Automatic annotation (TrEMBL):
<dbReference type="InterPro" id="IPR050661">
    <property type="entry name" value="BglG_antiterminators"/>
</dbReference>
<dbReference type="InterPro" id="IPR002178">
    <property type="entry name" value="PTS_EIIA_type-2_dom"/>
</dbReference>
<dbReference type="Pfam" id="PF00874">
    <property type="entry name" value="PRD"/>
</dbReference>
<protein>
    <submittedName>
        <fullName>PTS sugar transporter subunit IIA</fullName>
    </submittedName>
</protein>
<feature type="domain" description="PTS EIIA type-2">
    <location>
        <begin position="495"/>
        <end position="639"/>
    </location>
</feature>
<dbReference type="InterPro" id="IPR036388">
    <property type="entry name" value="WH-like_DNA-bd_sf"/>
</dbReference>
<dbReference type="InterPro" id="IPR016152">
    <property type="entry name" value="PTrfase/Anion_transptr"/>
</dbReference>
<dbReference type="InterPro" id="IPR036634">
    <property type="entry name" value="PRD_sf"/>
</dbReference>
<keyword id="KW-0762">Sugar transport</keyword>
<keyword id="KW-0813">Transport</keyword>
<dbReference type="Pfam" id="PF00359">
    <property type="entry name" value="PTS_EIIA_2"/>
</dbReference>
<feature type="domain" description="PRD">
    <location>
        <begin position="286"/>
        <end position="392"/>
    </location>
</feature>
<dbReference type="InterPro" id="IPR011608">
    <property type="entry name" value="PRD"/>
</dbReference>
<keyword id="KW-0677">Repeat</keyword>
Length: 639
């Protein structure tokens, strides 16, 4: 039983916020319901009280779930023992004696050898090597590389990139700065930067606090960074002075020039808005023309490929500034975590897909590696732009039915506009007691009198609008919007499925790439795609996992080169590993150039259907063949 799986159970329950069955949790984790029960027992043993409630409907978060998430693990668990081994390797240049360490940890030397093998597995990309000479083991590499390893451990400890000061100290050890101290440092840093005129990105500040804690811990052990030869800029000097003062104030640690330069660069490339406040007497920094040209080119291609309105100078400039910072961070392998990555991917799959396309284009032109958290930041830029560009005609139209009594209908319309003007547009007012209900062609009808018919679009409200009325209208708006979205999917999707490309019980042994090839062969035999498309779908999968929900993966190639848009379906029973999660349905989608406009509808609405756990389980239970799958999918869409 691993703490990692226990934490995954906690994460799923907190995110769901309601009852989840043991079978559902087991599918997501790839274990048995019996294992889930043992995980819940172990979770509840962490705290005095109930962290996870059990009942006939399954499990849900209890009153002490937050305490369980922050509780330290048993020091004897493999993960905590691994952290202890790594800290010991990092603290001493000479490493340690394997037999002495195994005695200290109360494990066999064979167990410690297995732990050291796991350490080697974590060293990829850190420029560190683990050397073993007789009974001694030690890490060889620069101080910067050793800190990157510590940073990697910290982020692995924090679920989905969330900022957890308790987990930070758990990784660094009991001698590291406490959560309260680091929280005060963070507060003062944000206040100091804000007072100096910087716009602070709170998502990035978590990474800076992490690196600050690591720097303070290493400096206290006599392991400082050497200063770089380059002369620091005025901005770096200003930020370094702030950090130096806060380090002495909160920790009593005097940071050297190397650490101050390093932390100042982190602040300037991931915490403050680039170019938002040029230093006094200096012009705003210009964008590297190579970066600006690369970003402009790939944004214009993305706008054309996905039919999204993002090819504007102001958007390109902001994204180029972000990319320039990303380029600086890549040189130091100082990546930013994004706590919104998972939700952005599952809630806005099309926006995330555009971000992957742009990130890949930037990678090809500038050589910047791709990570999902960095892609998510690009998705936030895109989402922000599209949100600002949303047209008013996206509002639902409404008719108010309010029989005339002095100016009552005018007062009601004014109240509706004031309370609901962000979501609906009133285009008509009926003041008769016997209006022609059938003639009202608006999306919604808000009526103060009882209608002769019942329909989802008709909402009964009071003549004087109440908070309850507003809530009822907003619920109706949500239902109608969802119905409209799924209606578009319903009208198009049936023609895209290929009956011969339905596989119940895909072979999960070869992994995601194997399943893509298995489903791809089905579409190749139908003449929809060629083998090159299959390989490009695999290349796209390597860029970023296409598991957009806990149940569904939608692999596809970036180019729309299929002869027609078609979907091959594979069902994994039980669930299979896909990227860093598990899925039960794989929809290999081949898009054609002629169906470019269908991309967003099919892509986003298919993901939406499979985001609802009850719908997924209903489809999977009854989808013994293609006909059953399609019938259940259509039934779910139709509600």
């Amino acid at each position: 039983m691993t703490r990692a799986r226990q934490d995954r159970v906690l994460s799923l329950l907190v995110r769901e916020g309601d009852w989840v069955t043991a079978a559902t949790l087991a599918d997501v984790l790839g274990v048995t319901p019996r294992s889930v029960r043992s995980y819940v027992t172990a979770i509840n043993a962490r705290v005095e009280g109930i962290a996870v409630e059990s009942g006939p409907l399954g499990y849900r978060p209890g009153p002490h779930v937050a305490d369980a998430q922050q509780a330290g693990g048993d020091a004897g668990t493999p993960r905590d023992r691994l952290h202890t081994v790594i800290r010991e390797l990092l603290d001493s240049a000479d490493g340690f004696d394997v037999y002495e360490m195994s005695d200290e940890l109360h494990v066999s030397s064979a167990t410690l050898d297995a732990d050291l093998a796991r350490v080697r597995g974590l060293l990829g990309g850190t420029e560190l090597t683990l050397e073993r000479s007789a009974s001694r083991a030690r890490l060889v590499g620069s101080e910067s590389a050793q800190r990157r390893l510590l940073s990697k451990l910290v982020h692995d400890e924090m679920d989905a990139g969330s900022f957890d000061l308790v987990a930070l100290r758990r990784t660094l050890g009991d001698n590291a700065a406490g959560a309260d101290t680091l929280a005060l440092f963070k507060t003062d840093l944000v206040a100091s930067l804000g007072a100096a005129g910087w716009f602070v990105n709170e998502f990035g500040i978590a990474d800076v606090v992490t690196h600050f804690a690591i720097a303070a811990d290493r400096v206290s052990r006599g392991r400082s960074l050497d200063a770089v030869a380059a002369t620091p800029t005025a901005d770096q000097q200003e930020v370094a002075a702030v950090i130096s003062n806060l380090a002495e104030k909160h920790l009593g640690v005097r940071l050297g020039d190397g650490d101050l330069q390093h932390l100042a660069r982190l602040v300037l490339t991931r915490v403050v808005a680039p170019g938002s406040r040029p230093p006094s007497g200096e012009p705003a920094a210009s964008i590297d023309q190579r970066v600006e040209h690369a970003v402009r080119e790939v944004v214009q291609q993305a706008a054309s490929e996905f039919l999204v309105d993002i090819a504007h100078d102001d958007f390109i400039e902001r994204l180029a500034l972000h990319t320039e910072n990303l380029l600086h961070r890549s040189k130091e392998q100082a990546w930013s975590r994004n706590p919104l990555t998972r939700s952005l991917k599952s809630t806005f799959p099309m926006i995330f897909e555009v971000a992957v396309y742009i990130a890949n284009g930037v990678h090809e032109r500038l050589g910047i590696p791709l990570f999902d958290d960095e892609v998510a930041y690009i998705a936030m830029h895109i989402g922000g732009r599209l949100e600002r560009m949303r047209r008013a005609d996206q509002h639902l139209t409404a008719t108010i039915v309010c029989p005339g009594f002095f100016e009552l209908h005018e007062l009601l319309r004014s109240s509706v506009d004031r309370s609901l003007g962000q979501t609906i547009e009133v285009v008509g007012v009926e003041t008769r007691v016997d209006p022609d209900w059938a003639a009202m062609g608006t999306d919604l009808v808000l009526t103060t009198i009882d209608p002769p018919i019942s329909a989802d679009r008709i909402v009964r409200i009071q003549p004087f609008l109440t908070e309850s009325d507003v809530e009822h209208v907003q619920a109706a708006v949500a239902r109608i919007r969802r119905t409209k979205r799924l209606a578009r999917l319903r009208s198009e999707i049936e023609g895209y499925f290929v009956p011969s490309a339905f596989v119940r019980g895909v072979d999960a042994a070869p992994g995601a790439e194997g399943v893509i090839r298995e489903l791809g062969d089905k579409l190749v035999s139908e003449g929809v795609i060629d083998n090159d498309y299959v390989e490009r779908a695999i290349d796209r999968e390597r860029l970023s996992s296409t598991a957009f929900t806990d149940a569904l993966a939608v692999p596809h190639a970036l180019g729309m080169t299929a002869t027609r848009t078609a979907i091959a379906i594979g069902i994994a029973d039980p669930s299979m590993k896909w990227g860093d999660t598990r899925v039960q349905v794989v929809a290999l989608v081949a898009f054609s150039e002629s169906d470019r406009e269908a991309f967003q509808t099919v892509f986003e609405q298919l993901v939406e259907v499979f985001s609802e756990r009850d719908s997924v389980q209903r489809i999977l239970r009854r989808a013994s063949d293609f006909s059953g799958f399609l019938d259940e999918l259509v039934a779910v869409i139709d509600g």
